[in-house]
Amino acid sequence: METAKQGETLHVLLIEDNEADVGLIRAALEELQAVDSAAGSVCLYVARDGKEARELLLSEARIGLVLLDHRLPGEDGLQWLEAIKSHSDLALRRLPVVMLSGNDTEEQIRRAYHAYASAYLIKPADPDGLRQMVGSLVAFWGQVARLPNRL
After folding, report:
1. Fewer CB atoms inside 10 A, N or C side of the chain?
2. Do strands 41-47 and 97-101 pair parallel, antiparallel, or not at all (unpaired)?
3. How far apart (Å, rounded) are the C-alpha atoms in residues 147 and 131?
4. β-strand partners of 46
């Protein structure tokens, strides 16, 4: 899978069970696209639990970036990260996975990077900070970074 080039759509899978955070991230993406035409198009898929995430990851959706909440019901985000990065499908293993958390203990951060997280970000408490964070993610993974095509 590859990230979107300018003018293409970046398909983002948000694995998040907190409806307020889903709403804020969705609003930040919509605002970013309305304000910055150079940001490119973003298609957001939302999975609120492991079953939905699994279905979306294995579907024909061209997911180019995963935003993964660290705390999920049932399986935590770290378990999901490990499942993605050890999957038999090489394209899934290559997916950039950004961990999102309200908790920044050194041990959690270390474990996430040890499991091959692409980044570990603390969710800003304020909407402006969240918008900036989402804008930075889309700019980097959607326009700057290049990954190989799906094999």
Report:
1. C
2. unpaired
3. 25
4. 14
Residue in 124, 12, 20 with CA at minimum distance from that of residue 68: 12
- List pLDDT tens digits, range 19-35: 999 999 999 888 887 77
Q: Residue 111's CB: how many other CB atoms inside 10 A? A: 17
pLDDT attached to residue 69: 93
Amino acid 39: pLDDT: 59
CATH number at residue 22: 3.40.50.2300
- What's the pTM? 0.87
Q: In this structure, what token pair is assigned to residue 80?
A: 């999901």
> Domain tally for the chain?
1
**Looking at residue 12, what is its pLDDT?**
93
Which residue is associated with the tokens 């180019």?
A: 64
Pure H helices in 14-139:
19-35, 50-58, 77-85, 90-94, 106-114, 127-139
Cα–Cα distance between 133 and 25 in angstroms, integer? 9
